Amino acid sequence: MLMKIIMLILLFIGVLEIFFNIITTLLQMIIGLFVKNFKFKEKAAGILKLFFVIIFMASVIFFLAEFVKVLAGLFGISLDNSILDIFR
User: Fold this and answer.
1) How far apart, in whole angstroms, are the C-alpha atoms of residue 74 and residue 5?
2) Strand, helix or coil for residue 85
3) Residue 46 CA from chain centroid, whole number
């Protein structure tokens, strides 16, 4: 259950960064308190965005795998050996 909560939080943070640039803006404001006229370079902002896209994709894949396990349980498909048992 803890893993699901962590992945849900990571999914939410990934969505906030990808679509609304919340994390980048917060980091820019925090660093701007110490360094005047601070602005992320395009490359640094791109790397930060790529990091959050990777986090987002990992959490989406995790929840897709959980969804497959739930559906396999509902339809009575055994997933003892691997997730590929669905295709038998």
Assistant:
1) 22
2) helix
3) 16
Q: Would the pLDDT of 85 be above 70?
A: no
**What would the pLDDT profile of 19-69 be if each residue is shown by its tens digit?**
999 999 999 999 999 999 889 899 999 999 999 999 999 999 999 999 988
Query: What is residue 49's predicted lDDT score, i.e. its pLDDT?
Result: 95
Enumerate the H helices of 1-88 as residue ranges. 2-20, 22-34, 42-75
Cα 79 to Cα 85: distance, rounded to the nearest angstrom: 6
The pLDDT, as a whole number, for residue 69 is 87
- How far apart CA 27 and CA 39 sit, in angstroms, is 10
Q: Each residue of 27-50: b (16+ CB within 10 Å) or e?
A: eeeeeeeeeeeeeeeeeeeeebee
User: Beta-carbon neighbour count of residue 52 at 10 Å?
Assistant: 20
